[in-house]
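Q: Start with the shorter request: fold the first protein.
A: Done. Sequence, then structure:
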Amino acid sequence: MEELERIPLKKVKLTVNTCLAYFNLQRSFKGLPPWSINEVARKTGTSPTTIHRLFREENDPKAAQALSLDLATRLCSVLECEVSDLMTTELVEGVYLDSIDKKSSID
């Protein structure tokens, strides 16, 4: 019997806060004031609560659990960044795709 390849699980982490910090740094070089989270919400047509949730630590129960492609597109347009700037991935030690219960979520 053929052995299945074990694929390590990668967890996606949102890095929207880093994107905004870099964007504001670029604005400061131009002598422009930084944007607040509320300003980003207004520019993207999103509620401030939604943007605040993107900035919370991943272990915070109020943190965003997902980022829609629509919101990612708007954030990239407003913050002048790429989708890859909004998130990173990291390996989850000892967890493989073949060992995940498909009905449960990964925390």
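Q: Next, the second protein, separately.
A: Sequence, then structure:
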Amino acid sequence: MIFGFSRLLIISPKHNFTYSLNPFDALNFCKYETQKQYLLSNLIAEQQETAPPAFDGDQQDKLLNSIDMRPKDIEVKESKLWKEKDVSKIEDLKTIEKTFDWSFSTPFKGTISSLSESLKENSTFNQQIESFNELIEQVVGPTELSQLPDFKGKLDYTSKTSIPLLLLGKDNPILHYGEVVLFEDELGDKGYSKCFVRYRVMKDCFFLLLRSYTRVDHVLVRILDTRIFHEFGSNVLIRDFIHKESTYEYLKIKEVDTSSKWSLSQTQSDDIYQNLEDRHHTNDQIVLS
């Protein structure tokens, strides 16, 4: 199920900046071609081949919205039986090209663009939510919208800056919090996939979690987490991306509960998180100027 009108926006009129977390962009990164085009290592390799090395406008946009890894395909438990089946006598057998991750594991970290451009979008979907743009204009102000500066956001992918956990402790009270579900699916009764955002706002900062959670029954559990932190008054958004994944076989050896009690729980991704193996971890930051 796609929650088409669900979205979370981070905006900064001062920097003409928008950070959008929405279901359609998240699902777009389930496409293999999109993953290939926006994979950070591919973009860096392309940049190094130019003389002199440089990112042009299109590459800068891709760099800002790049992903750190491409999730490997997951096969259902029964796939081994299908592969062993003799199909040599089937005359009209067709092989279907796979273009999309059927498990909806999305490495999407958010869509970064200029605020002025995001308000000019004229797709059919956006025309249906003009009230959403009107709300943004109320927050930003019509005068400011007409005087927005050029957007100059950059990705510092070499940054090792970590999210300052001390600012997220009990001594910094949460003023507002919430959760936005972007999409979820039961994978043809073969598991469960869910993409959602949790956020909290304190007096001096905000912190959010974008999670792509995938469970393929009796095969594998995967979590792709992007955490974003911003301290008010700074021009930097610190991001932390982590990929955690384990097979059911591994979880069974570790005596982790994978019963229906867990798999039917609304908190299953939180319950299993600490038991999954770390596969990939990166830090970066978005710098606004």
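Q: Describe the second briefly.
A: DSSP finds twelve helices and ten strands in the chain. The radius of gyration is 21 Å.
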